[in-house]
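Pinned message: reference record for Putative NAD(P)H nitroreductase
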Amino acid sequence: MHSITEALLNRSSEPRLKAPAPPQDVLDLALACAARAPDHALLRPWRYLVIEGEGLERLGELFEASAPAGASDAQRQKLRKAPLRAPMVLVAIASPVSHPKVPEYEQEYACAASAAYLVLALQAEGYGAMWRSGEVSDNDQVCKGLGLGDRESIVGFIYVGTVDSEKPPVPRPEISEFTSRWPQ
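Predicted structure (tokens):
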């Protein structure tokens, strides 16, 4: 089995992460892999924010400030602590450009592929990652606080670090559960 195939088959979301985060050389390598994602017309419609250290606390404050009116203290505290679950958070941002042949949704797909390559590269280098999204990803206050432009959107918050503890394997579907032939 090829090492790439093995990495894909062993990929796993890792919710329990601790320091250290990847050093700059490993992060640069993973980001170089992200830049190799399929991308119609070579538009590179993505960008990443790297958040560590004090930035994680500021991100938590931003998450907390985005809580809906009527949120409980426990809900606000959970939002505030969320970024502290890992020593590094990478924000994958779809940054579409106007193009006559490449619609924005296709550019968002390219950003998602880029983020998936990033996660795989980090895992291949010995780090764990957890791709998270949810309400904070679509929150206007969070997007503005992170400096997103009008047409940009958050594809995911990728929590990164050293795997803290092994988790049980996740059951994987049988190929026949999601594949069919056409025409039948």
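Pinned by admin. Summary line: The domain at 19-52+85-165 is CATH 3.40.109.10 (NADH Oxidase).
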